[in-house]
Amino acid sequence: MIPPRSDLAAVSAHAHPGGGAFGAVLALAATAAVVAYVAAAVRLRRRGDAWPRPRDASFAAGGAGLAYASTAPLPGGPFTAHMAQHLVVAMAAPLLLVLARPLTLVLRTLPPGPVRRGLLAAAHSRPAAWLLFPPLAAVLDVGGLWLLYRTGLSAAARHDPLLGAAVHAHVLAAGLLFTAAVCQLDPVRRRWSVRWRGAALLAAGAGHAVLAKTLYAAPPPGTAVAAADLHAGARLMYYGGDLVEAALAAVIAARWYAATGRAHRRRGRPAALFRRADAPSSLP
Amino acid sequence: MTSEQDRPAPSGARPETRRSLAVCALIGAAVMAAVDEIVFHQVLHWHHFYDRSTPGVALLSDGLLHTAELLGLVAGFFLLADLRRRRALSAAHARAGFFLGAGLFQLFDGVVDHKLLRLHQVRYGVDVTPYDWAWNLAALALLAVGAVLAVRARRRTRLPAAAR
């Protein structure tokens, strides 16, 4: 069942799952989260804690991107614009939000009490640990995308605003979950090695790239997309995904680099002192 | 590769020759893949983004390889930085590894991707044979350069060891 052209044009206006009421709600929530984050960071700094300013900027940029992509029309044909929105909501914004370590900030600013205890218990709970198992997070994220674009879900979500909102919410939540599982910046129950996280990123990236190439060949079932729009959207998905995946890889690698550096310094301290014994200055 | 790395590592730090070669082979393969993507896909538009005759398995292997190249490029540079930080980089082995990795990728791309999996061709609308020859001979040339550099690097590290 391929809807006629005019119908497509009509739905594309609100086809962006975020368009309409849910998009506005999401934009408001993102704005409120940014305000709360900055207020908490300011409080922390007044108290004398160190909280790097780039984290504020990262969170604000993530929130702004999310709000913008959920409400404003994006450039390009309907499918390309939808893909741009997908990239921001499911990949770029989650990365910027996760890099700001929101959970760490909340746990540091909340006073001791039931709310803080509850949050800590949730973060350390078994279900949270399972959800944050990198391969599972990858399946939830990329598997959801395959369901969306390779079944009738995409077409159905265009016609049912409620389903559209649910899809939009899932895409954001799964993006946040996968990014958090791969970057592993906030304190959670279980830490996974670089191998697990790298393998999950590799599998998710491959799934994303293959899906982008199949979309280049055929649009989601039940939708009609102009060839040029389809090709531009599929390429945007492929190369845009690459950019965010490279950034995620850089996050994993930079943390590995810092951790091995600390390990080397601990192990190599006596040797370093010995080597420097004849050097005139740098001895502490 | 600056001249600073050409000097032998200071005493106390032993150059890790195998690791230097392997890490730079990873970077070489990933850089070659990036050059392929940028020059032939984006600038010249010779390759097709997706050739409709591509079977599913080929698409999957392409997706895996493409992501692996991307992650390999990032990982390779961090591993290289780690070697330099520990003064364990052997520049001669690193250079050899770079050419070997680049040549291996080019050969894999030319034989497996283009011919066996038929992901896409070097160029469309022309007789592709000379292009395939040029592609694969370039790969062999890179591999030959890498092999010569590897042999020289090995000799260079062996001689001081023998003199000791």
TrEMBL record, chain A:
Source species: Streptomyces minutiscleroticus
Membrane topology: Multi-pass membrane protein
Protein name as catalogued: Membrane protein
Highest taxon in the source lineage: Bacteria
Cellular-component GO terms for this entry: plasma membrane
Keyword Membrane: yes
Pfam families, per the entry: Caa3_CtaG
UniProt KW keywords: Cell membrane, Membrane, Transmembrane, Transmembrane helix
Transmembrane annotation, as ranges: 20-44, 56-75, 87-107, 128-149, 161-182, 194-216, 236-258
Subcellular localization(s) per the UniProt record: Cell membrane
Automatic annotation (TrEMBL), chain B:
InterPro entries listed in its UniProt record: DUF2243_membrane (IPR018719)
Keywords from the named record: Membrane, Transmembrane, Transmembrane helix
Keyword Transmembrane included in the entry's annotation: yes
Membrane-spanning residues: 21-44, 64-81, 88-108, 133-151
Pfam families xref list: DUF2243
Origin superkingdom: Bacteria
Protein name: DUF2243 domain-containing protein
Source species of the chain: Streptomyces minutiscleroticus
